[in-house]
Amino acid sequence: MESSHHFSMLVFLLAVLFSLSCATLPHEDFLHCLSHSSNGSSPISNVIFKPQNSSFSSILESTIRNLRFSASDTPKPLVIVTPSTTSHVQATIRCSRTHGLQIRTRSGGHDFEGLSYVSRVPFIIIDLVNFGSIDVDVENRVAWVQSGAVLGQLYYRIAEKSRTLAFPAGTCHTVGTGGYFSGGGYGLLFRKYGLAADNIIDAQLIDVNGRILDRKSMGEELFWAIRGGGGGSFGIVLSWKLRLVSVPETVTAFTISKTIQENAIQLIHRWQYIGHELPDGVYSSVTLNTVNGTVMASFSSLFLGGSDELVSLMQERFPELGLVKQDCIEMSWIDSIRHFGQIQNQPLEILLDRNFKTSLTSPYYKAKSDYVKKPIPEMGLRGLWSMLSEEEAESAVVGFFAYGGIMAEIPETANPFPHRAGNLYKILYNVGWQEDENVNSERYIQWIRRVYDYMGSFVSKSPREAYINYRDLDIGTNNEDGNTSYAEASIWGRKYFKNNFNRLMRVKTMIDPQNFFRQEQTIPPLISSRNKRAH
Ligand SMILES: Cc1cc2nc3c(=O)[nH]c(=O)nc-3n(C[C@H](O)[C@H](O)[C@H](O)COP(=O)(O)OP(=O)(O)OC[C@H]3O[C@@H](n4cnc5c(N)ncnc54)[C@H](O)[C@@H]3O)c2cc1C
Ligand SMILES: *[C@@H]1O[C@H](CO)[C@@H](O)[C@H](O)[C@H]1NC(C)=O
Ligand SMILES: *[C@@H]1O[C@H](CO)[C@@H](O)[C@H](O)[C@H]1NC(C)=O
Ligand SMILES: *[C@@H]1O[C@H](CO)[C@@H](O)[C@H](O)[C@H]1NC(C)=O
Ligand SMILES: *[C@@H]1O[C@H](CO)[C@@H](O)[C@H](O)[C@H]1NC(C)=O
């Protein structure tokens, strides 16, 4: 008995070894396919990283921005491709399709749920780190930027050529243009100039068939969809043409922090009536967080002008805040990016560093969003404040960002981003924690879900709106195998896109009817065999 047991064990082990060494796994066929698409001038073998390669982990981790998705049990890609030519991207799409592998495209890696580098089905990553060129044309006030360039690099290249040109985008300089533009993209200038996506005038996209399309050849429907419909649904955007905007040589920033004893609740309550009505040259936000064990509300602004003008404006509109000139800092527009990015003490060249680890978020975090259409009563704000005093909220931030200005004038259908007129402000909830607290991660996630439940009665309803760039898988997801029904997808889809969701599905049906490009929250095609359950 003993020996026959050993014998069968041996056979079993041999069988395992044999299957490991001899069976062709899908990604081996894939690699074989890729190696055959190479051409002499730019061999694709130089940009393929397998797990055995000593650089694999460092490339994978280089832009993981949320360590929740860097655990040993987080699914890893079979291969990472860092294309350096368009033909590398085309070959990777073709071979992935042929061999049944999913692609996750990564630009800056800031997705709140890690969707650009994690998938539960076998997948590869196309990392656009080598697509980072930026070409600024001051005379025509336009720029071409490739998707792997980050916002800081774009700002730096603009500022290098002009002190009075800018682009309306976010303050965290390591955010990738690829994902950020795809989801709309707001920042310090959005009340005056709209979202980043509102200022995109052309783009280059590779579709599921490997075709290279620009605005003209893709047509206005697809061009509409890629400016706010979220990354990952329509193809791989390689570059964007931007319309630059004017800024004065001097801009002014302030931040005033208040405790509950300093009437923070009353001031926030009042701000809800004032923020969205401010002139469009003022960016205005309130952030709530814990500083040295005390919850504080910080009122911040960036003003496109000098401090005297800003002080008199705020004294007229919001005298309760008590802004005085000493609170104000005048600076150039490029320095306002460093100021709000909390890197004001770093050299300007820090903006070029796409791997810089920002202190704007905790190493581990979970985030959610809301839109507010009616002022929240003081009682409601008090409840939120007391949740911020709880232990789990030590590294939590809740931000209110005033809407209004041009955001209320751009029609809801101008691009897929629908949160325009009627919004007083948007809320970002973020709860963070450190490595040694990660064993208790569930506590923090439960905390933010409780806050979200609590806020439900004060925020937008039917749908409860959310911002796609603040990705939140709690609000609903597609099936992993791509057979999501319209009814399932529209649960999360209507929150992000309202009625634009239907139009997005029509575009998806046109450009990728087989739903090759898919993730947990990508637009499903309307009519496909995979989608039968919808009918
Ligand atoms: C610290 C921090 C600060 C932030 N600040 C702001 C802010 O001020 N304003 C704001 O609006 N948002 C902000 N965000 C959210 C940010 O806009 C989104 O996370 C955005 O998707 C990040 O883009 P990325 O290229 O870095 O992300 P990635 O993780 O690379 O991509 C995000 C999504 O887009 C897809 N994708 C990426 N590249 C492409 C491409 N080239 N073509 C097609 N699909 C693509 C990915 O597959 C994924 O689904 C912030 C996020 C963080 C972490
Ligand atoms: C890793 O992969 C790169 C790109 O294919 C290659 O140039 C390099 O030699 C590889 N390194 C190792 C140690 O295998
Ligand atoms: C080979 O690569 C170059 C550079 O990307 C490209 O221009 C060319 O079209 C490619 N040729 C083929 C046959 O793929
Ligand atoms: C928090 O505490 C530290 C150390 O005691 C102190 O240096 C810092 O100024 C405090 N911050 C605030 C905002 O009070
Ligand atoms: C489709 O989705 C359901 C879950 O809703 C799943 O049970 C089923 O196996 C999926 N796959 C196919 C190919 O239908």
TrEMBL record:
Keywords: Cell wall, Disulfide bond, FAD, Flavoprotein, Glycoprotein, Nucleotide-binding, Oxidoreductase, Secreted, Signal. PANTHER family: OS08G0158400 PROTEIN. Residues 73-247 form the FAD-binding PCMH-type domain. It is found in: Secreted, Cell wall. GO terms for molecular function: FAD binding; oxidoreductase activity. Residues 1-23 form the signal peptide. This is FAD-binding PCMH-type domain-containing protein. The keyword Disulfide bond applies. Belongs to the oxygen-dependent FAD-linked oxidoreductase family. It comes from Hibiscus trionum (Flower of an hour). Its main location: secreted. It comes from the Eukaryota. Its cofactor is FAD. Pfam families: BBE, FAD_binding_4.
